[in-house]
Amino acid sequence: MYKFRKLLALCLAAAFAAGILSGYSAQAKAKTAVSCKSLCSTALKATGGSRKLKYTSASAIDFGGLSASARNKVKEIQYICDSKEVYSLCVIRTKDTKDSAKVLSALKKYKKNNCTSDYLSDYSAAEKKVFKNAVCGRKGTYVWYIAMSPKKAKNNKGQKSIKKRL
Known about the structure:
The chain has 166 residues and is α+β, with helices and mostly antiparallel strands. It has 6 helices and 5 strands, in the order H-H-E-H-E-E-H-H-E-E-H.
């Protein structure tokens, strides 16, 4: 009888421990899946936000920085911008880290093209600085493009806030 109780107590303790551990792993999984919308909000607060931002989208096709092949790697996206698409913020979650590296490469090409494009003659000197001082980065499966200010330091504050949340 004593052995039976001891075995029963051990089984209950093991089941309890397994239940606790599964709860922790579920919390860890939930913590890694931060929404792109909340990361945009975090970056907006860090950069001082902008009243100029009028357009918002959760569709990859709306952000001009992604090629068709890069859009296929997007799991989730939040894109906000002004009417001229100068002041903008885009946070993307990809399917895996390999995809995030490819999307980051596409964003770097987009930034470079924005700084040397012929259509820049339509923009003011301050708007050209926004393109020039945009930042893009990556952490895990998340990738972002931040062009919220003509000052790179301000855009970097947005980037730091995203990294801190992840």
